[in-house]
Automatic annotation (TrEMBL):
Family to which the UniProt record says this protein belongs: Belongs to the enolase family.
Reactions it catalyzes: (2R)-2-phosphoglycerate = phosphoenolpyruvate + H2O
Residue ranges of the region described as Disordered: 185-212, 322-347, 598-630
Enzyme Commission no: 4.2.1.11
Biased composition (Polar residues): 618-630
Pathway terms, separated by semicolons: Carbohydrate degradation; glycolysis; pyruvate from D-glyceraldehyde 3-phosphate: step 4/5
Protein name per the record: Enolase 4
Organism expressing this protein natively: Urocolius indicus (Red-faced mousebird)
Family matches, as InterPro entries: DD_ENO4, Enolase, Enolase-like_C_sf, Enolase-like_N, Enolase_C, Enolase_N
Catalytic class of the enzyme: lyase
Length: 630
């Protein structure tokens, strides 16, 4: 049993240890400083102010746990959510989460068995991603600072490379085993002998001997590593956590990463490409060329004013698409009494009753001019002039139209055009509708010569943008041999193994080549609005979010409005600009995006070739008699 003297001695030792411990951390001095600083202020919440004062001396938060789980995106498909937990002031705290958007390469009209296989692959990939986050990445990133984005992304990149190599090794081993099994089978089977007889030679003058101009074959579909969304989801979640801990908006946090921690004096909002029409490609509609019709507000309007104007146009379009029996008495002057009936009652009903997963109206058309004339008439009816008060962009999605048997694009049901004829068609279309200032995927990425021809013909007055015609960000950044069609810019999507550092680096390289960057929202969008902050922080020229319906899309427009308001209050909002690229000679055009890696020593485009202003002629106030709306 401990005596009284021993207890006193033990207590004295503890007091000395405590004094040395607190002295070593400077507690007494800092407490005195805090009390002296706060007494003149006499704050209402004294202990709150003391907590704030001492918090700056606490250790920086570190990652303590990552949690991955399977959730649903905006169209009911499985996707990945990543949560970040940090140790903050000795306690585990949930900092933030992010939900990945999913991107599918299967066309809408795919066969049922292909769609079913794609769905199974998607589920397996999400399950693998959840496993990666909860096991490997959780252990690898533990105790790292969430503000060290470069270090985190380097670890994520190395892990992905390791997984990709493991997959290649497994596939190689499987191929070798299959080859051995085939060899054993063929060695035990007698060779088949061909029946005697001569092979008939093709007679001269037959159709089979006529050589037709062939098109470049389609490049193989990009292979997506199962579980790769764990890389992108974790990188973005860590960036959000770093911004939260730094008490900095995510868009400014990303801008600081891009500017090497040098805060930008002004920031520009990306111009929204707002989808108002999704043209269906099934019967009875004949038009296949146009997938989306988008509105772009002029730069002199605020984002709020631009969205309000787009909503007015959309409302008038819906009125024009009302079935004939429900049309109001006041219709635009036509000169043709039966026009509404001739356009087709069924098509009007389809357009009004259905909303696309892109958040816009679905309509069917019979030619490329119809959707443009619809928007033109709607604008005219409410006193707006296209080309001055609003601009148009078209997502052509030409890669979905190629008939590889004929070697031509099927732009209308039964109407086919060669790649060269497509270029001529676009030139004619933009001469007729000069308020169209952007074409997305007007050709397949394989038709490189036609991309070059199109850029030379239209590049000085229209953005020629590669979306599907580009490739994944990881290949754009690392593959030195990648070839991208000549274009004005690319649509970047934050999917799969894309990391925040990849976006920062790639957009910097594109900026150096004077190519525009568009941040795009995938079809399988989620309610996570981080894409907007990425677009603002990276300085994207445009942002493509879909329509002004569906919660997962509207929430992003709301976030963009909030950022505009915040920048305006801080007086750091700079007006956007529309500046086109005048493409140089043929030899230079072939190098436009190939030269992005490595960056050139000099600016590839002289400043005097750019055209900052848009000038278009006045438009008619009504639909021409030769048009019809389905």
């Amino acid at each position: 049993m401990e005596s009284g003297e021993q207890r006193r001695r033990r207590l004295q030792e503890l007091r000395q240890e405590a004094a040395e411990y607190y002295r070593g951390h400077g507690v007494a001095e800092r407490l005195e400083e805090a009390l002296n600083a706060l007494f003149p202020l006499r704050p209402a919440d004294l202990y709150g102010e003391l907590a704030n004062y001492f918090s700056k001396f606490s250790k920086a938060p570190v990652i303590c746990k990552l949690v991955g789980r399977k959730v649903l995106n905006g169209i009911g498909q499985p996707t990945l959510e990543v949560e970040v937990y940090c140790t903050v002031k000795n306690y585990e705290k949930r900092i933030c989460s992010t939900v990945m958007s999913s991107y599918g390469q299967i066309p809408e009209n795919a066969l049922p068995e292909i769609a079913e296989a794609d769905e199974k692959e998607r589920v397996d990939s999400v399950n693998a991603a959840v496993e990666w986050v909860n096991e490997s990445l959780n252990a690898m990133l533990k105790d790292l600072k969430p503000t060290d984005q470069c270090k985190v992304d380097k670890i994520l990149g190395e892990y992905f490379t390791k997984k990709a190599e493991e997959k290649k090794e497994n596939e190689k081993q499987g191929e070798e085993e299959a080859a051995e099994a085939t060899l054993l089978f063929t060695s035990s089977t007698p060779p088949a002998t061909a029946p005697p007889g001569k092979k008939k030679a093709a007679k001269p003058g037959k159709k089979g001997t006529v050589e037709e101009k062939t098109i470049p074959p389609a490049e193989p579909v990009e292979v997506v590593l199962c579980g790769s969304s764990a890389i992108g989801g974790t990188s973005l979640a860590i960036a959000k956590a770093g911004a939260t801990i730094s008490n900095t908006p995510l868009y400014l946090y990303v801008a600081l990463l891009k500017c090497s921690q040098d805060p930008p004096k002004e920031m520009t909002l990306p111009l929204p490409m707002v989808t108002v029409l999704n043209c269906e490609k099934t019967s009875p509609a004949k038009l296949k060329l146009v997938k989306e019709v988008m509105l772009i507000p002029p730069v002199h309007l605020s984002l709020k004013q631009g969205i309000e104007r787009i909503l007015d146009i959309q409302k008038e379009m819906m009125r024009l698409l009302e079935p004939p029996g429900k049309m109001p008495s006041s219709q635009p002057a036509d000169g043709k009494k039966g026009r509404a009936h001739r356009t087709g009652k069924e098509a009007s009903t389809r357009a009004l009753k259905r909303i696309s997963h892109l958040g816009c109206l679905i309509t069917g058309c019979d030619n490329p001019e119809q959707p443009l004339l619809l928007v033109q008439t709607a604008c005219t009816n409410i006193g707006l002039e296209l080309g001055t008060d609003m601009y148009l962009a078209i997502n052509c999605a030409a890669q979905e139209l190629m008939d590889y048997v004929k070697g031509k694009y099927e732009i209308l049901t039964g109407m086919f055009k060669s790649p060269d004829e497509m270029v001529d068609m676009y030139v004619k279309l933009l001469n007729e509708f000069p308020f169209v200032i952007a074409l997305i995927d007007p050709l397949r990425k394989e038709d490189r010569q036609q991309w070059s021809n199109l850029c030379h013909a239209l590049g000085s007055k229209c953005y020629l943008i590669a979306e599907d015609a580009a490739t994944y960000i990881s290949r754009l950044k690392t593959d030195q041999n990648i070839k991208i069609p000549t274009c004005s810019g690319v649509v970047l999507k934050y999917i799969n193994q894309t990391k925040v550092s990849d976006l920062v680096e790639l957009t910097g390289l594109l900026d150096g080549q004077r190519h525009i960057t568009i941040l795009g929202s995938p079809d399988g969008e989620s309610s996570d609005d981080s894409l907007v902050d990425l677009a603002v922080g990276l300085g994207a020229r445009f942002i493509k979010l879909g329509g002004l319906s569906r919660g997962e899309r509207v929430t992003k427009y709301n976030r963009l409005l909030a950022i505009e308001e915040e920048l305006a209050e801080n007086r750091t909002l700079r007006e956007a600009n529309l500046e086109f690229i005048a493409f140089a000679d043929e030899s230079h055009a072939e190098k436009q995006l190939l030269d992005v890696l490595p960056p050139p020593e000099q600016d590839s485009l002289p400043a005097e070739r750019s055209q900052p202003a848009l000038q278009v002629h006045s438009l008619p106030t009504q639909l021409p008699d030769t048009s019809s709306l389905t």
